[in-house]
Amino acid sequence: MLISSYSENLIEAGCDEAGRGCLAGPVYAAAVILPPHYQNELLNDSKKLTEKQRNYLREVIENEALAYGVATCSPEEIDEINILNASFLSMHRAINKLTTIPELLLIDGNRFNPYKKIAHHCLIKGDARYLSIAAASILAKTYRDEYMQELHGQFPHYGWNTNKGYPTIQHKIAIHNHGLTPHHRKTFKSQIQLKIQF
User: Fold this and answer.
1) How far apart are the C-alpha atoms of 154 and 76, rounded to whole Å?
2) Sheet holding 27-33: strands in order across?
3) 3-class secondary structure for the chain?
4) What is the largest CA-CA distance in the chain?
5) Are 164 and 145 in contact (CB under 8 A)?
6) pLDDT at 5
7) Quick count: other Cβ atoms within 10 Å of Cβ 117?
8) How far is CA 185 from the centre of its chain?
9) CB within 8 A of 9, min separation 6: which ones?
10) What domains, with CATH codes, occur in the chain?
């Protein structure tokens, strides 16, 4: 069972991102404030859930959260400021969208750029420990998957309907055969190798 809160009486927002290790598409982030003492037995790290479970929980979270925000950083921004800073910036943008101002930010991972004057805690594998971070991971993942599914219709060669922009062999072969699209991150040269490794 995941933990409902980190503190006793502060308004907490869980924050997580999706798409950090991809070759294409934006990085997405979400921030979620759940009600005090919130419980949901199905809610978990998005990576531990099926697509059907994630999509179901997305509706539950959007209906039951006190506030939530979802935001992105584009491939161009990722190339300009690097993926780590883009992940932090997308989280900041998601927090900006919250209609309730949090008093504490719970960040999945071990690093974060401070947001205004709000205290934060970085929690390794936080999406498998705290409900609000798990909720953020689900929103970030489902919104990003939906976007990549839409892009797949325009660029079917790359298999984004299944790999969602991650560096699969299919994706690398498509880059080798068809080149890069405007949605690819140009600075990920170490992952975009023309010599495909089988």
Assistant:
1) 19
2) 67-73, 27-33, 12-18, 104-108, 119-123
3) CCECCCCCCCCEEEEEEECCCCCECCEEEEEEECCCCCCCCCCCCHHHCCHHHHHHHHHHHHHHCCEEEEEEECHHHHHHHCHHHHHHHHHHHHHHCCCCCCCEEEEECCCCCCECCEEEEEECCHHHCEHHHHHHHHHHHHHHHHHHHHHHHHCHHHCHHHHCCCCCHHHHHHHHHHCCCCCECCCCCCCCCCCCCC
4) 55
5) yes
6) 94
7) 5
8) 16
9) none
10) 12-154 (3.30.420.10)
Q: Which residues of the chain have pLDDT under 50?
A: 194-198
For residue 108, the model assigns a pLDDT of 98
Which residue shows structure tokens 């798990």?
134
Rounded to whole angstroms, the Cα distance separating 114 from 35 reads 24
What pLDDT sits at residue 192? 54
In DSSP terms, 16 is beta-bridged to 30
CA distance 165 to 159: 8
pLDDT on residue 129: 97
Using alpha carbons, list the distances in angstroms from residue 169 to 23, 52, 173: 12, 25, 6
**Which pLDDT belongs to residue 99?**
98
For 145-197, write each residue's pLDDT tens digit. 999 999 999 999 999 999 999 999 999 999 999 999 999 999 876 555 544 44
Residue 72 β-bridge partners: 28
